[in-house]
Amino acid sequence: MDRTNSRDRELRDRAAAVIPGGMYGHQSVGLLPDDYPQFFERGEGAHLWDADGNRYLDFMCAYGPNLFGYAHPEIDAAFVRQLEKGDTLTGPTALMVELAEALTGMVTHADWAIFCKNGSDATTMALTTARAHTRRRIVVRAKGAYHGALPWCTPRPAGVIDTDRSHQIFYDYNDVASLEAAVAEAGDDLAAVFAAPFKHDAFIDQSDPTPEYARKARELCDRTGALLVVDEVRAGFRLDRDCSWSRLGVQPDLSSWGKCVANGHPLSILLGNDKARAAAASIYVTGSFWYQAATMAAALETLRLIRETDYLERITALGQRLRDGLAERASAAGFGLRQTGPGVMPLFLFDDDPDLRKGFCWSSEMLSRGVYVHPWHNMFLCAAMTEADIDGALDAAEASFGALKRQVRDLTPVEKLAFLSAGAR
Ligand code: PMP
């Protein structure tokens, strides 16, 4: 509507001169509609303010880290209290032991924890641990699944050489036959099978794991001696207070965590069972900032809220409210909108929209009404959202469907044909 973006434009211009590509990685808005802001000023609760002061209800939650709300008073107070005492020290504080005890008490398969900073640290350490445990090389993982941005798993090939990617065999998520074939191909060199909690790849419909697939992954690892790894970095603690595959009755040997475990403070975690303990103790892993105490204080407070509040039930109910309300409004406006993935981590794709033109228009309309949604990546709900926030988002959605319809209607016949058959391009 009447949003300004002059400060964002200015920052982008300056960034172009001093930051490669102006911005890098998953927070680059290069693949988002043009009007999406690149730079932000602050966050509070479920809301986010861009560099020009525009306020949004934020359905990205920092791509996951925001679980209880930005600038959460209790979590951030725990962080600041510890910061004043000491953060990066010559050794860890008692908080490290307390945190490992808390996590092993919450996550069924976990007998130990190693702390690190980014999800990629934890997934890579899972692979290293599995290789040390089995003394084998091959990882079998799902095609298209994201496990981080290091050379072995980055989705972009630039700068990566063949040997960085060697000893990997891919299967189709949820496809038992392709998993069996990948494991068979790995033969006696299989170190690990990786799986995401659900199929949360970008650009496509999401899907829940079938119990057959999850059980087969466990069975194949048991049969071959390989380790089963569930990568909870993105979905951890949004689906369950335990490892999410506990809901399927399947326990992995290792699980990687990150993003929301300290509600936005930098922490990631590798959890493992006793079987993998000796291997985990044998590998050399570390980082200058891996032992920071303030982050661990924030994590302990986050875990306390996970255990003691009804956050999970609330975000689950909010996710359902959003899903039901959107389905109703999309169909009233005559749009086929596919909402896939769990309600707390939804992804929206329009029918007959192969080049995402409708998705981009609709998302821009939402943005202009103060709701930050993503046209091709799964989103995240947080516990700071209220029913009123969801209802406000639904009002914005209704108006945005209307605006999208008008845009299609206002096109010339030739333009309309191009819009509606965009996928043919
Ligand atoms: N695994 C999954 C499933 C992820 O979603 C991500 C991050 N999006 C990672 C690993 C890597 O985490 P990070 O960006 O913190 O290194």
Question: Would you write up a description of this structure?
Answer:
The protein is an alpha/beta fold and 425 residues long. It has twelve helices and 13 strands. It has two domains: 6-63 and 310-421, Aspartate Aminotransferase, domain 1; 73-308, Aspartate Aminotransferase, domain 2, CATH 3.40.640. Helix content is 40%, strand content 13%. The strands form three sheets. A seven-stranded mixed β-sheet has the order 4-10-9-8-7-5-6, sandwiched between helices. Strands 1-2-3-13 form a four-stranded mixed β-sheet. A hairpin with a 2-residue loop joins β1 (40-44) and β2. α2 packs antiparallel against α8 (293-308) and α9 runs parallel beside α11. It binds 4'-deoxy-4'-aminopyridoxal-5'-phosphate. 4'-deoxy-4'-aminopyridoxal-5'-phosphate binds next to α4. 4'-deoxy-4'-aminopyridoxal-5'-phosphate (PMP) binds at residues 118-120, 123, 146-149, 196, 231, 233-234, 258.
Bound molecules: 4'-deoxy-4'-aminopyridoxal-5'-phosphate
The structure class reads alpha/beta
The CATH architecture of the largest domain can be named as: 3-Layer(aba) Sandwich
Tell me the CATH topology of the largest domain.
Aspartate Aminotransferase, domain 2
For the terminal residues, how far apart are their CA atoms?
30 Å
Question: What number of domains?
Answer: 2
Sheet with the most strands: spatial strand order: 4-10-9-8-7-5-6
Q: What's the shape?
A: globular
Mean pLDDT: 96
What is the name of the CATH class of the largest domain? Alpha Beta
Tell me the total number of β-strands: 13
CATH H-tier superfamily of the largest domain: Type I PLP-dependent aspartate aminotransferase-like (Major domain)
